[in-house]
Amino acid sequence: MPPHLLTWMLALLPMLAMLVPLASHASGAAQPATTRHLQANAATQAGATRNPLQAPFASDSIWNMPIGSGAQYVHARLPAVPGNESWAMMPQLDEEIIVLEPDAPMTPVRLSDAAWSGKDRCEPTGGFLLEVPMPADFVIPNSKGNNSAAFLAPDGRTLLQAQPLTRCRAGGVATALVQFKPVDLYGDGRHGAHGGSGLSAIGGSLRLGELRPGGPPPRHALKLDLYGKDVFYQCQNQANCFRWPAYKADSGAVGRYGIGHGNINSNPLRKNPPPFAMRMGALLAIPAKQDLATLGLETKVGQMLAWTLQNYGAYVVDDAGGPSVAISAEKGPRGSFRQQFRQDWGFDFEQRVRNNTPWMRDMQRLIQALHVVDNNSPATIGGGGTPLQPLAAPLQEPATNTHRASEASSAASHETRPAADAQPEKN
After folding, report:
1. Confidence check: pLDDT of 427 > 60
2. Whole-number Å distance between alpha carbons of 282 and 235
3. d(CA 161, CA 180)
4. pLDDT value at residue 93
5. Domain tally for the chain?
6. Does 305 reside within a domain?
7. Residue 386 has pLDDT above 50, yes or no
């Protein structure tokens, strides 16, 4: 082959490499969502690359930052039986609507004041809130669930969030009570559509492809809803009802948080451990010195969750509103974590105390082992010191697409209503 021809062919290789994924997209060819998630997860763990759709936000985001060697632990004193009720959920799922389809049809979201009153959320009761990309066939039935929702805007990097999202008919209008300010997929990811704290509807979520047999444990912080009446500090004013990174507490926190009979975190005079630590927004973790083998866990999935809770912890993002411990997880057009868990492990994620199953007993052990990382702060995320795990790989930001960016700006340009208080669905 003539040298000049070889040189010309080599010069074309980068261009051909760019065309391959475009051709695959244009033809409609795509890997199954689960395969994509697993590949992205493996690449992240290897430290080479990170898929922002599967593992969003900056490496030092609260969701991605490991617990540090400087963490100062205060026992959370969480009860094994929430509310001392045998029918309490242990655990429950707080399903988050996660739609990362920026090329989907733009769908209007209109105001519904049904909220958590039990009224029908399907029909709008007010005007236009925002516009989001949503597949036409994706339906979110009426319920009393939290339905915190996050959508990827047409620019491929802006996250639009609302709560509680409902869409009862394919191709129809969606409803919500409140929208939240846009968040950058490549930023700190703190703010979002959990009305009880103002924290993210996607950061910290258990995602499709995570917590699977034979796979690694989740390598990010999780999110918990706890029974505030039962376990929170009995705050005397609104400012003392929450702690960083939460932006707020429920509007009725004063007079509701910590008032449960026998709540050990309700006595402001108690010194050891101090009750003030256990507030909305608290980062909970199993102390690093705890030998996980001594917890007596009976299930493999319980062991995986224990590793995550020790190395990354979980943020309290909402009041459960009733006796339960709820964990936030993905539900969207590509599937639901609930269904994946059932298919993988052969039993339901959600259990009641009275079921007395190995998974329920493992959750009780994990919950009782949790401590508040009391020195978690903007300067010492996870408690500071040396992280217990390597930091997540940096995200590679895409080049700006000005046309798509203007579309995202238009979609998010409407006035943000005050954040709503939220309760997960009662069972």
Report:
1. no
2. 14
3. 5
4. 98
5. 2
6. yes
7. yes
Q: Which of 5-9, 35-39, 290-294, 421-425 has the highest mean pLDDT?
A: 290-294
Q: What is the pLDDT of residues 176-234, one digit of tens each?
A: 999 999 999 999 999 999 999 999 999 999 999 999 999 999 999 999 999 999 999 99
Residue 92's DSSP bridge partners are 326
Structural domain harbouring 146: 96-202+397-411
Is 17 contained in some domain? no
88's tokens = 């309490």
Asked if residue 175 and residue 164 are part of one domain, the reply reads: yes
Distance CA 281, CA 288 (A): 20
> Is residue 272 located within the same domain as residue 300?
yes
Question: Do both 244 and 279 map to the same domain?
Answer: yes
Per the DSSP assignment, residues forming a β-bridge with 152 are 159
Taking only the tens place, the pLDDT of each residue in 237-255 is 999 999 999 999 998 999 9
Which pLDDT tens digit goes with each residue over 326-340?
Answer: 999 999 999 999 999
Residue 241 shares a structural domain with residue 273: yes
Q: Pick the range with the lowest mean pLDDT from 24-38, 42-56, 258-272.
A: 24-38
Tally the residues of the chain: 427
Do 367 and 356 form a contact (C-beta atoms < 8 A)?
no
- Check whether residue 225 and residue 114 sit in a common domain: no
Task: Match 């639009």 to its residue by tokens.
Answer: 160
The average pLDDT across 339-348 equals 98
**Is the separation of the CB atoms in 179 and 130 below 8 Å?**
yes
Mark whether 227 and 372 lie in a shared domain.
Answer: yes
CA–CA distance, 14 with 17 (Å, rounded to integer): 5
Nearest C-alpha neighbor of 323 from the set 94, 83, 146 = 83
Alpha-carbon gap, residue 390 to 261, rounded angstroms: 42
- Domain-located, residue 349: yes
